[in-house]
């Protein structure tokens, strides 16, 4: 058996040597036969003829030997590939068209697969036993609403560590932008703040030094140590070993480098690549030294590794029990705080990937839909290629019939046709990978900042996915032409000779063309709806201007200032900002939309109860220039003036939504409300501002109220370090100038960060931006492919009906009537596609509408525009075939008869 196996492997990989041995053996046997015949009295020539006749043909023996060795299929495949290549070279335009069509469809799916795989399926790099690692989600009732959260306090993490028994490890992590470096070299970078236990959840070792330990991440404050990412180590330290022991300023502290993480390690980050990893207790202590003593700072995400012998259901029950116990600890000493039973407290050991968890945002849903759109594009491309192959098979009817008549089996013929299709699919897959590598980076950058996904061709999962698509395409596109070859009419085709037997309408080709039109309509409707949503979200009035406003955030580092000193520092920073050329107005603030909003709870209004049920109340403070600096319109009353000093009667401005909610049907100006406890003074409403949005873009009750800055400082004595600056021109053009000037006012190693306000709003628009971009790109691609398919079908029909059209013209048919008939064929397919595709789009409206922004999924304008586009494209696709039909020479057509 082993000898036979070695022989077969040798015959497969050393075919030339085995063939030479076979020829030598054949010559030996023939020579022995010749010698036998010579001894019987024949001449040498007669002996050779008889020996060869008795022994049989060499080629037949070689084929039998190959079959016996089990490697005959190799010759068959090689022969089929060579034949397919020669056949495609004779029709280069056809081959290029098919390869590009398949490449576009494959590339779209390969690019999208990388995003979907990363956000919905692929576990974080190096994660050990990913099926047992979970993200903590807590759900509870609050003011009648069921809320789910994933960010928690460090003390909650401690409670779960003590009480949960179904898990062998718990860790916390948080990714945020933090200032790294000092002076002019200071830049904001992505930093992962994590517990030391996080590293134990990954099968990873540092490439240099070590990770920080549990002892260095202990309470009350951890050690100031930092682990560098591999990319940061390479870019900042040049990959040198002397990076260990170096000091780096991170946020409010100075950290010592103790290790370097391996390439590609990003911890539990989803879309960002951390530059540094720091202990959670060290970072938190610099921000709030009492962070572990209360439940007031929810900022950490909790990750848990389930024990191998515990099911997910048992783990959920255990973590719910532990969460309820923590909830009861939080109730100790708190008033008006519901019990765990009353709040229906429940916890879940959910998926690590956010896109698969209970708090998946609109981006994950849009990505899933766009992946479906990419599949639709692939189907359109597949239908187009099948149509082209069917059209080509019509021109090859005589070739197929002749080969069958010469004895080629139908199985062998199908094998050759499928080999040709496989070759086209493989070439298309290669083009698709190139397209995904070249154009996919831009698409991925909308959702992923991880450079490790930059090389599509180097990602094995994407390569395997593309290979699977290639095989599927080969089967789908090659099946119909192969079946058509099996049904070939050999006698009828050979009797017709080289003459065309006339045009035959194909139900399959017509159905494929109709399918392309239907799918194109569905994609165009989706693109139109997302484009309208993007327009609506971009034109949405948020209650303030975005483009000309810059955010300045001042952070103290290594400097202790009392409240008076902090206020004086911010006054100096404000004066310096107002002195920068190009700055119109500047104002300190305590809330920044879509970034950090101060909430003091619902106010007390005489005669009103349970205001917390209305929604979120957000406090803002500013100078008299605030409303002009932000461009916020005052609808009633007035804004702040220089008379609203600390010793003046307390006043407030409320948003229109808050005025309508607290004093419905009444004039809010002159009304009073109180913030905080009974010792706080009542505030008199002096103005009503336009509605504000600073939490979410979707419709949600947001109640904003504004205090004069001096009165805010007197009431709350809370330091603040943020400015909003209005500039003349683009905000981006003033970022560096403001940062350089304001940094001069910061004491010691303190620093300022400056960014355009739009950078905080753009991420909120990302889902609609991505949906509009991808739907539109794929819809245009599908439309172009459908137009090519329509053109090829109509052009083939005109070419096949040349004699018929010539006879019609000879009998008096007008050229306009002939052109109208050809164009009518294309319009018929377009109208049918519009009707069926529109019906599908209407049926899918209830699933699509939640993804849109202020846009009905059955928007008549979108459907009307799509109808017009399809009709115009159908006309353009049929114009050239129609002109060709009108140029048919009747005399030539009649002479062929």
Low-confidence stretches: none
The dominant shape is globular
- Domains, number: 4
Largest sheet composition: 11 strands, mixed
Secondary structure: helix percent: 40-55%
> What is the beta-strand fraction?
5-15%
End-to-end gap? 67 Å
Mean pLDDT: 86
The secondary structure category is alpha+beta
The tally of helices reads: 28
Q: How many strands?
A: 21
Radius of gyration: 37 Å
Structure description:
This protein is globular. The protein folds into 4 domains: 2-70, no CATH class; 130-352, no CATH class; 362-499 and 507-538 and 765-895, no CATH class; 549-762, no CATH class. It has 897 residues and is of the alpha+beta class. Strands 1, 2, 3, 4, 5, 6, 7, 8, 9, 10 and 11 form an 11-stranded mixed β-sheet that branches. Strands 14, 15, 16, 17, 18 and 19 form a 6-stranded mixed β-sheet that branches. Strands 13-20-12-21 form a 4-stranded antiparallel β-sheet. The longest helix is centred in the middle third of the chain and has 36 residues, at 410-445. It is built from 28 helices and 21 strands.
């Amino acid at each position: 058996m082993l000898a036979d196996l070695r022989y077969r492997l040798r015959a497969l990989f050393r075919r030339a040597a085995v063939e030479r041995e076979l020829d030598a053996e054949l010559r030996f046997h023939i020579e022995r036969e010749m010698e036998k015949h010579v001894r019987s009295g024949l001449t040498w020539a007669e002996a050779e003829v008889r020996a060869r006749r008795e022994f049989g043909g060499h080629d037949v023996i070689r084929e039998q030997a190959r079959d016996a060795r089990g490697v005959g299929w190799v010759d068959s495949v090689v022969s089929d590939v060579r034949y397919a290549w020669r056949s495609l070279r004779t029709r280069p335009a056809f081959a290029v068209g098919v390869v590009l069509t398949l490449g576009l469809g494959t590339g779209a799916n390969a690019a999208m697969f990388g995003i979907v795989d990363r956000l919905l399926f692929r576990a974080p790099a190096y994660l050990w036993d990913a099926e047992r690692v979970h993200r903590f989600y807590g759900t509870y009732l609050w003011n009648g609403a069921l809320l789910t959260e994933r960010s928690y306090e460090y003390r909650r993490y401690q409670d779960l560590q003590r009480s949960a028994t179904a898990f062998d490890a718990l860790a916390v992590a948080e990714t945020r932008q933090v200032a790294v470096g000092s002076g002019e070299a200071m830049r904001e970078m992505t930093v992962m703040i994590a517990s030391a236990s996080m590293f134990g959840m990954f099968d990873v070792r540092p490439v240099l030094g070590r990770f920080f330990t549990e002892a260095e991440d202990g309470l009350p404050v951890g050690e100031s140590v930092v682990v560098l990412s591999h990319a940061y180590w390479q870019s900042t330290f040049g990959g040198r070993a002397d990076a260990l022991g170096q000091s780096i300023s991170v946020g409010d502290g100075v950290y010592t480098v103790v290790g370097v993480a391996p390439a590609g390690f990003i911890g539990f980050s989803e879309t960002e690549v951390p530059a540094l990893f720091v202990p959670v207790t060290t970072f938190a202590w610099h921000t709030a030294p009492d962070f572990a003593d209360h439940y007031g700072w929810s900022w950490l995400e909790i990750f848990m590794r389930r024990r191998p012998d515990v099911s997910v259901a048992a783990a959920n029950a255990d973590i719910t029990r532990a969460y309820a116990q923590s909830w009861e600890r939080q109730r100790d000493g708190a008033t008006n705080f519901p019990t765990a039973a009353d709040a229906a407290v429940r916890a879940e050991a959910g998926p690590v990937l956010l896109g698969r968890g209970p708090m998946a945002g609109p981006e994950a849903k849009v990505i899933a839909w766009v992946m479906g759109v990419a599949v639709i594009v692939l189907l359109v491309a597949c239908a187009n290629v099948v149509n082209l192959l069917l059209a080509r098979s019509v021109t090859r009817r005589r070739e197929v019939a002749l080969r069958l008549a010469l004895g080629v089996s139908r199985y062998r013929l199908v094998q050759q046709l499928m080999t040709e299709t496989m070759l086209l699919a493989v070439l298309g897959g290669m083009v698709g990978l190139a397209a995904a590598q070249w154009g996919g980076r831009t698409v991925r950058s909308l959702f992923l900042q991880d450079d490790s996904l930059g090389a599509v061709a180097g990602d094995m999962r994407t390569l395997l996915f593309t290979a699977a698509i290639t095989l599927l395409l080969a089967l789908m596109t090659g099946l119909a032409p192969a079946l058509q070859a099996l049904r070939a009419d050999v006698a009828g085709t050979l009797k017709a000779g080289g003459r065309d037997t006339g045009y035959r309408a194909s139900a399959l080709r017509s159905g494929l063309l109709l399918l392309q039109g239907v799918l194109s309509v569905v994609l165009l409707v989706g693109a139109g709806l997302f484009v309208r949503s993007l327009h609506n979200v971009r034109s949405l009035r948020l209650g303030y201007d975005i483009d000309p406003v810059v955010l300045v955030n001042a952070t103290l580092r290594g400097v202790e200032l009392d409240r008076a000193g902090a206020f004086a520092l911010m006054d100096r920073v404000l004066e310096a900002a107002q002195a920068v050329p190009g700055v119109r107005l500047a104002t300190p603030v305590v809330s920044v939309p879509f970034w950090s909003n101060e909430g003091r709870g619902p106010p007390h209004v005489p005669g009103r109860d349970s205001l917390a049920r209305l929604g979120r109340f957000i406090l803002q403070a500013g100078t008299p220039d605030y409303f002009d600096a932000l461009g916020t319109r005052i609808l009633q009353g007035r804004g702040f003036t220089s008379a609203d000093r600390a010793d003046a009667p307390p006043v407030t401005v409320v948003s229109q939504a808050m005025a309508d909610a607290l004093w419905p049907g009444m004039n809010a100006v002159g009304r009073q409300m109180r913030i905080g406890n009974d010792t706080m003074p009542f505030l008199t409403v002096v103005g009503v501002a336009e509605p504000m949005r600073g939490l979410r873009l979707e419709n949600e009750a947001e109640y904003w109220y504004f205090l004069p800055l001096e009165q805010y400082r007197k009431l709350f004595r809370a330091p603040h370090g943020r400015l909003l600056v209005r500039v003349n021109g683009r905000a981006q053009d003033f970022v560096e100038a403001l940062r350089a000037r304001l940094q001069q006012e910061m004491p010691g190693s303190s620093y300022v960060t400056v960014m355009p306000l739009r950078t905080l709003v753009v991420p909120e628009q990302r889902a609609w931006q991505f949906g509009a971009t991808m739907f539109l790109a794929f819809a245009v691609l599908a439309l172009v492919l459908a137009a090519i398919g329509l053109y090829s079908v109509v052009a083939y029909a005109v070419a096949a009906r040349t004699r018929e059209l010539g006879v019609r013209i000879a009998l008096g048919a007008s050229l306009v009537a002939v052109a109208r008939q050809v164009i009518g064929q294309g319009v018929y397919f377009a109208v049918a596609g519009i009707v069926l595709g529109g019906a599908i789009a209407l049926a899918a409206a209830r699933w699509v509408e939640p993804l849109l922004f202020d846009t009905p999924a059955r928007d008549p304008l979108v459907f009307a525009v799509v109808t017009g586009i399809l009709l115009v494209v159908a006309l353009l696709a049929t114009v050239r075939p129609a002109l060709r039909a009108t140029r048919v020479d009747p005399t030539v057509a009649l002479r062929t008869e």
